[in-house]
Amino acid sequence: MKFIKTSPILLPTIIFAIFLALSLLHLFELNPGESGHVADNIFYYLINSITWLSGALLFNILVQTFIWGGLFKRPISGNFSQVIIDFIAVSIYVFALLGILTKVIEIPLNAFWLTIAVIILIVGTALRRRALSLSSGSLFTTDKPFNIGDWIKIIDNVIGEVEGEVTDIRMRNIKLKSSDNTIVVIPQSILSNVIVKNYSGSKDLITVQLLFNLSSAYPTERVKRVLKASVIDALTPHNLLDKNEPEISINDTNELGIEYSIKYLIKPEKIVDRSKIDDLIYKKVLSHLSYTGMKLITKDSLFPTEQSYFQFGFDKKLILMHNELFSHFTQKEIDQLSKKINVLSVSKDSILIKQGESGESMFLVVEGLLQVSMTTDKNEKIDLALLSPGAYLGEMSLFTGEPRSANVSAISDSIVTEIKKEDIHEILKNRSGLAEEISNTIAERKIMNLQAIEDASGKKSHFYDNILGKIKSFFNL
Q1: Residue-wise pLDDT tens digits, 333-370
Q2: What is the topology classification, in CATH, of domain 206-292?
């Protein structure tokens, strides 16, 4: 991320150095009363006056940068501190004016001039904020370091850090809308002495961090796998995820257990939707953790209140019971099938299913995230869906022997269970009505996939008869 403002010290230093050199070289001498040296007199007053004023400006900037912005970053009271800052800033310029009066113009310092100086000091301290507001408002209107709609961050030693979308720019103030929709009004006067970061239009990506507490009883690698899949699942459908995958790490350990850090990169133009994006991630994290049986830990719940089949292993019976396709199975049939199925690990980027290949098995997603895609006749890849925990795939190949209709690959490290034809054959033969119930579920799923809800009743009958016939033929029922 780059700063819009560059160092404010360089240019005043150069100006002061140039005029100080001209003053010390005595190129123009004061010749009072001599008409032939009018130009010399004018340049003498001009150069020496600018030397004093540029010196005051440079000194003021040094105080602002190294004193207020360095030693005193956390003032006790914002309003009181601002009065002190204004008083010292005006005092420096008053001192410069007195220097010009006594050293350049050579007017003796008396009570009158001291009274004038005190008045200027008081009035200047009171009006400095307003004067800066007008000047900076004009400056910002000309320079336009940000526009309405930009997402900016303002960093100041008095007000701290404020960020949000610019919703209004006026002569005296600007308005920001933060990620939680709070409207923040920033005086233009502050902008002359702060660092402004403008995220909009930047090629840099913004790193966002979220923190979650989970019990130390959960295997850390497993938690990382689930959290990573959750973020990818939340951001990918909305085209929010950069090509760099989320980074999951242990941030800290505390009385709540282990604090995990989720860091992801977001495109600058999407930062306005930060609160909505965080909400998407929280929902997906809760969903993925819920299916795996793990829970977020808060101060109100120091330890998980429920034990789950996924916390310390994989209970194949409960995996089947939580899947709609096997909701028609009796407990005895679930027990029988669970003894035969296998739990498989699928590494990121691995291909689980290839379109067009023969297959006689299906898969249930336990953890992670899978990408379903198709290859067209023109060899173009079309992404169809993301499969998260609880989803299943390949059921047509298992029950009907049809070739794989799509490609399925892992976009994060995943865990699946595989059910093969020989695992379920005996169960289907022993209960004649089970094939009909499975056909009904598959038909409903196929209708949803084809998005034919408006003609669902007629198509369901067609799919049901077709699928049932294929199941009976494939299993010789």
Answers
A1: 999 999 998 889 999 999 999 999 988 899 999 999 99
A2: Alpha-Beta Plaits (3.30.70)
Rg (CA), the chain: 36
Q: What is the Cα–Cα distance from 190 to 194, expressed in whole angstroms?
A: 7
Structure confidence at residue 246 as a pLDDT band (50, 70, 90)? confident
For the chain, what are the domain ranges?
A: 10-143, 151-198, 206-292, 316-474
Note the pLDDT tens digit of each residue in 96-126: 899 888 888 888 888 888 888 888 888 877 7
In angstroms, the CA 471 to CA 421 distance is: 11
What's the pTM value of the predicted model, to 2 decimals?
Answer: 0.55
Residue 397: count of CB within 10 angstroms of its CB: 22
Q: Treating both helix axes as pointing N-terminal to C-terminal, what angle do 78-99 and 38-62 enclose, rounded to 10 degrees?
A: 160
Question: Would you state the structure tokens that stand for residue 361, as one six-digit string?
Answer: 């098995």
Predicted confidence (pLDDT) at residue 463 exceeds the cutoff of 80: no
Instruction: Give how far Cα 332 sits from Cα of 335, 339, 362, Å.
Output: 5, 11, 21
Please name the CATH architecture into which domain 316-474 falls: Sandwich (2.60)
Tell me what pLDDT residue 399 has. Answer: 83
Phi first, then psi: what are they for 176, rounded to 5°?
-115, 145
Q: Is 244 exposed, middle or buried (0-12, 13-18, 19+ CB in 10 A)?
A: exposed
SS3 readout for the chain: CCECCCCCCHHHHHHHHHHHHHHHHCCCCCCCCCHHHHHHHHHHHHHHHHHHHHHHHHHHHHHHHHHHHHHCCCCCCHHHHHHHHHHHHHHHHHHHHHHHHHHHCCCCCCHHHHHHHHHHHHHHHHHHHHHHHHHHHHHHHHHCCCCCCCEEEEEECCCEEEEEEEEEECCCEEEEECCCCCEEEEEHHHHHHCEEEECCCCCCCEEEEEEEEECCCCCHHHHHHHHHHHHHHHHHHHCCCCCCCCEEEEEEEECCEEEEEEEEEECHHHHHHHHHHHHHHHHHHHHHHHHHCCCECECCECCCCCCCCCCCCCCHHHHHHCCHHHCCCCHHHHHHHHCCCEEEEECCCCEEECCCCCCCEEEEEEECCEEEEEECCCCCEEEEEEECCCCEECHHHHHHCCCCCCEEEECCCEEEEEEEHHHHHHHHHHCCCHHHHHHHHHHHHHHHHHCCHHHHHHHHHHHHHHHHHHHHHHCCC
430's tokens: 């022993």
Residue burial 38-62, b: 16+ Cβ < 10 Å; e: rest = eeebebbeebbbbbbbbbbbbbbbe
